[in-house]
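Researcher: Here's the sequence for the chain we discussed earlier.
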Amino acid sequence: MAKSTTQNIRQIITKRFNGFFVIMLGAFGLLMFFLFKVVFVDGPTLKADASSKYIKERSIEAVRGNIYASDGSLLATSLPKYRLGMDFSVFKTAKMREVYKNNARALAEHLSAFYQDRTADEYYYKLQKAFDKKQPYLLVNNRLLDYQERKKVLTFPIFNLHPNNPIKTGVVFDKVNVRYAPFGQTAYRTVGYMKDKVRVGIEGAFDKELAGVPGHGIFEKMDKNMWRPLDGSKEILPQRGLDLHTTLDVDIQDIVELALMKSLDAYKGNYATAVVMETATGEIKAISNLMKNEKSPTGYSEFVNYAIEVSENDPGSVFKLPAMMAMLEESHMPLTETVTTGGKYTIYNKTMSDSHDYGTLTAQGVIEHSSNIGTIKLMQRVFGSKPAKWYDYLKGFHLLDPLDFQIKPVTAKPNFRVPTKWDALTYMWTSVGYSSNTSPLHLLSFYNAIANNGYWVQPIIVKKATQGNEVVIDYTQTQKRDSKPICSKETLDKIRIMLKGVVERGTGNNLTGTAYGIAGKTGTAQRRVNGQYIKGTYYVSFIGYFPVNNPKYTMLVAMDKPLGSSEGTYARQVTAPVFKDISDHIYARDMKIQRKLTGYLPDSLNNASLHHLVHPLDHGILYSNLGFPRIEEDGRWLSFQLKKKEVKNYGVSFAPKKVANVVGMNLRDALFILENQGLKVRAQGLGFVKSQSIPAGFPIQKNAMINIQLH
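Model: Thanks. This is the structure I predict for it:
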């Protein structure tokens, strides 16, 4: 009985063991199957997948092209910046490992003093951890370094062993191209920028030309977002982007921006815009759009390019000039044609009024005094039976279609209803600048045609694209120009008389007294918000050209919602003086349009004294145009001194790491120097720097605030 029981137990154990063995054998077989599958079947695919995560072909960014002003000044360029990393795999030999161990503490202390974001101990333990793991890449610090800072880093312990070949000491500089504007906020929205993949201005419109052609190479992943070229791999080098040469004049741009700031300070408008165009060529010499911004060093910034966008506001009385040109062309109306104005004029249950009671006016007087009633009554005489003809004239004046300007506006086509959708009032209301919307640049190009002997020319802001000294694209070849004038010579002569009369005895008579003469037209329109006109608030503008007898420049100045008394918010009081301020300064600097003086200079000028710091790029004006004594052109600033009839020039150098002396400079030059020294600038006033809060010669503290007072 006992023997039988023992036998049964042994059989059960044997049975269970055999079952367990079979299961284990099956599991082992299954494991071998999967191992075989992973190694020999799926292996190549898995290996390729793993490799693709750490080694892959990547695009190599090309260096973006430069943007230049008309005189060769840099408006935008790409500067190399560097992130500091380390490759600890280079410390293979006993000698190199000993070098690291002997200098690691000193290196950590230098990094702590340089970056000032961690203690020396923190840097030491961070480096030591990567060293122990022989880590092929460690991002030491994410802050971007400029070229001078890169040179300084190479003087640190360990790094200074092979300064000409830093990779031998584990130094890895990851290069990043950063866009830099030497003139800061000057023409900010027009030159443009790139933020969060949004590109505006010239940077956006010419992105393809500026961007160049990227290269390709095999890269190894070193860190979360860091890749490094794989040693020995072949790569296709990127092709640098094209350089763009604009028509912008940095001096005129500076004049325009200062004048707009001064006017905005006085009238507190929502925004102000101004454009200066060279009459014969259509070249935009300056374009500015300013709004209040307390965070900006100047107190103003550019957020929207109002000059090229179709405005939300009606153009106002500046649109009376196209109406008058159309009427003169259609009817050959004499300047002496009379019309009764004054009071209010009601037609089709709509009432129009004038700001003053002018009584009976001639056609010339209607424009000179900007009479709404006079314009509408004359339009009824000429176009009452054929209103659609008015539309045809506007189309011929290039006021209804997109300009195809090189910087693409968000809204390019003027808002002007076609005749089939007109009511009985439309053609009359549009003739005085209401019930339509257009861009300031459209209007400027129309007035420019008047200044240009009747020939319309398309506005242009980029002349050419170059690669080195070779012109790759000449944009003037595709610039549109009319082969015929937009009106007859008879009409053009009448229009010019009217515009001259606006300044001599009309709504712009506060612009008289210049040596060169101005012709132009004021415009004041009630602002329209959500389709409703708001009484007492205006959009004001002045468009004109100078010198009056031989125009070289055509200009527009506009401001939205200037504040003040009822007499202080019209175009006459607000934008016309800004026009004169700008034209006076342009005339003073443009030797070619100035009248030659005869006779003797008064003693007050013969005995005059002057001291001014001159930007390196402005030296040529003194040398070639004024014939003053020349100094060696070595990129230094120039101290220009005139005392009586004696002129002395000498180069000025700024001490490194010391706050520069900017007293006597204009705002543009002062911002250029101080911001390049790493200071934050807050400016007050207009004109030239009178004082600075941090005296010249004081040691520079990075990101310190310096206040400069101008007068």
